[in-house]
Amino acid sequence: MDNRQWILVKRPVGDIDDETLALRTAQVRELEDGECLVRNLYLSLDPTNRVWMSDREQYLPPVAIGEVMRGITIGRVVASRDPRLAVGDAVQGVGGWQDYWVAQGGAATKLRDDGKTPLTLYMGLLGMVGCTAYFGMLEIGNPQAGETVVVSAAAGAVGSIAVQLAKLRGARVIGIAGSDEKCAWLVEELGIDAAINHRREKVYARLRELAPQGVDVYFDNTGGEILDAVLANLALNARIPLCGLISTYNATGRGSGPANYGAILIKRAMVKGFIILDYQARYGEAISALAGWHAQGKLKYRVDIVEGLESAPRALGRLFDGSNQGKLVVRVAADTAH
Ligand SMILES: NC(=O)c1ccc[n+]([C@@H]2O[C@H](COP(=O)([O-])OP(=O)(O)OC[C@H]3O[C@@H](n4cnc5c(N)ncnc54)[C@H](OP(=O)(O)O)[C@@H]3O)[C@@H](O)[C@H]2O)c1
Known about the structure:
By secondary structure, the protein is an alpha/beta fold. Helix 6 (about 225-230) links the parallel strand 11 and strand 12 (about 235-240). Strands 3, 4, 5, 6, 7, 14 and 15 form a seven-stranded mixed β-sheet that branches. It has a six-stranded parallel β-sheet with strand order 10-9-8-11-12-13, sandwiched between helices. The protein is built from ten helices and 15 strands. The longest helix is centred in the middle third of the chain and has 14 residues, at about 130-140. The structure holds NADP nicotinamide-adenine-dinucleotide phosphate (NAP). NADP nicotinamide-adenine-dinucleotide phosphate (NAP) binds near residues 153, 157, 159, 224 and 276.
């Protein structure tokens, strides 16, 4: 059976380009006992994919040159010698940028496939993305009713959940996003209090107006200039869950540190970096809470689907130019099960 695979052929410098990955065709091998063959249906595109392509210090080993690009996938079992999984089961795992993968030793997790929940929701709200917003906002940020919360990349996969969780806590929420359409969606659809378009407005000055008492919680998805603008607007005892630094992932050279680092001292602020894999033992708790709020209509979510495995490298760029509208996913194959 033919298996199309995106292979990492060159470490990118700056934005990824057409030389970074190559599409090759390999043959699917025979299964051994305890293994199953999964047909990928959806591939999750995440900012961290760009980090995995580099060899900078990171939380997992970088993808090696010549390897299939790492990626989280959802698919269906098409052959099985694993007694825990049957043909037709929907599963999630690190299936890679390819059509098929062989899951060994429980590497594929069976999903609750009720025919009503879109499988893509398990890549967003009901998956690691949802857990990231949940633990980052509710445990590290821990916003209280009446406090002011700011979230960057607020209309994105993680950010759009983080803002809604802060609203559920009764906080005043300001989102920072990169277009007027995203800002309008945040205020009108998600019901947050205000939004700032970082491409058109001066974030520092707008925060001064919108949060004269200062920012109690800043959920940082971007780092860079936005972080500096928020640091200069912190309230006393502010908390900063440091979730991601997307403004730096394509950077070349060392870059500079935050200019307003001193505000952390003066405002007795707490900054905590976190990687969601560290919370694995508690995913169940987060996902059942998120699913409950979603079922009650208290959490809205949007998924941006790109067609075809061949589109994956170009589509990844949308996370960096901001053209994704919610959780970015590639449809690798049509799901004929429902
Ligand atoms: N710590 C963890 O375990 C963990 C887990 C998942 C994700 N993350 C991090 O969370 C962040 C968001 O990831 P996501 O999956 O939810 O992606 P996303 O927000 O759906 O997409 C990325 C968004 O980042 C914004 N962006 C891109 N370049 C930017 C720049 N230079 N300055 C400001 N904003 C920029 C764009 O939105 P605008 O149009 O609004 O600019 C873009 O839509 C990333 O930093 C990611 O690495 C961390």
